[in-house]
Amino acid sequence: MDPEVYTYVSDGLLMVMNIDPIASLPSPSAPAVLAAAVFDALSDPTRRSIFERLCGEPQAVGVLAEGLPVSRPAVSQHLRALERAQLVVAHREGTRRIYSVHTEGLAALRSWVEHHWDVVLDRFADAAEAAEREARLSEQAVQSNENRGDPR
Questions:
Q1: Type and span of the H or E element at 137
Q2: Is this model's pTM higher than 0.85 or not?
Q3: What is the dihedral of CA 141, 144, 149, 151, to 10 degrees?
Q4: Which residues in 11-105 belong to E strands, given as ranges?
C-alpha cells in the first residue's frame, strides 16, 4: 500500500508529509493537516491583521498595506501564505487582485476545534457520571451501615 501524502505550508515553506498507512501511529486526516496550516498561517501577527481586515470586506493589496508596518510586497507574500492555508481567495478586477475570506480554511479549523471540544465534553460527562455513581454508592454504604447499627 502506498503512503498517503499530505502537504501544508509552514513559515512560507511547503511541507510534505508521507504517511505510512500501516504504521502504528495514526495518520492525520486532511482536515487536521489543513487546520495545522491555518494555525501556522494565523500565527503571524501581520497575517492575522490582514485576515481580520478581510473579514470586514474584500480589499486590494494596496488598501490592505495602508496602516500596516510592512511593505506592499510583504503584504503580497503574507496573502500568498493565507491563500495556501485556504483562508483567502483572490479575483481580478482589471489590473488589481481583490482578496476576500475563503471559508474552507475556517471550516477545517472549526471542524478541528469542534472535534476536540466534543471529545473533552464527552470525557467531562463521563467523569461527572462516575462521580455521581461514586457518591450514590457511598451514600448507600452509609445507609446500609446505619441500618445495621454500624456507626461508621
A1: helix 103-147
A2: no
A3: 10
A4: 13-19, 59-60, 88-93, 96-101
Grid coordinates in use for 111? 471542524
For the beta carbon of residue 80, count every other beta carbon within 10 angstroms.
14
Q: How many residues does the chain have?
A: 152
Distance (Å, rounded) from C-alpha 93 to C-alpha 59? 11
- pLDDT digit string, tens, across residues 55-72: 999 999 999 999 899 999
What is the distance between the terminal CA atoms of the chain, rounded to a whole angstrom? 64
**DSSP labels for 42-69?**
HTSHHHHHHHHHHHHS-EEHHHHHTT-S
Burial of 71 from C-beta contacts in 10 A (0-12 / 13-18 / 19+):
exposed
DSSP state of 26: P
Amino acid at position 117, single letter: W
140-147 long-range contacts (CB < 8 A, ≥24 apart) are none
User: Is the pLDDT at 53 greater than 70, yes or no?
Assistant: yes
Q: What are the sequence ranges of the domains in the chain?
A: 4-107
Q: What is the CATH number of domain 4-107?
A: 1.10.10.10
